[in-house]
Amino acid sequence: MDSAGRQAALALAALLLWLGWWLGFASPSASAIAVLLAWLPLAPALGFVAKGGPKAAGWCSLAGVFYAGFAVMEVVANPRQRWHAGIALILTLAMIATQVRLIKSRRLQSS
């Protein structure tokens, strides 16, 4: 695993852990179903991202846009969860940036 793959996997894992903690414990309506639904699009791709798969990184960066939208809506609409949603937004943007970096590094290596 190279540096770009490691950073992308760490950013994705950090986002998944934060969403799990926030939606599973810190939220007033915490439930295991919310965590499962939040993890469902991204968790299966974690292993492929760690191996440096550009297709998995592309999927994660695309799905990350929706996670960023969710976090922005929570920041605006839910004052009690503003800090949790703000951290989720920062982690989502970091995850998207590292996934794009992984994709670019793979394109440079293949050419």
Quickly describe the structure.
This protein is mainly alpha-helical and 111 residues long. Helix content is 81%, strand content 0%. The protein is elongated and about 50 Å long.
Following the backbone from N to C, one meets helices and strands in this order, namely: HHHHH
Protein structure class? mainly alpha
Q: Strand fraction band?
A: under 5%
Largest sheet: none
Instruction: Please tally the β strands and state the result.
Output: 0
Distance between the termini: 19 Å
The percentage helix is over 70%
What's the tally of helices? 5
Write the layout of secondary structure elements.
Elements: H1 3-26, H2 32-39, H3 46-50, H4 54-77, H5 82-110
Helix pairs in contact: 1-2, 1-5, 4-5
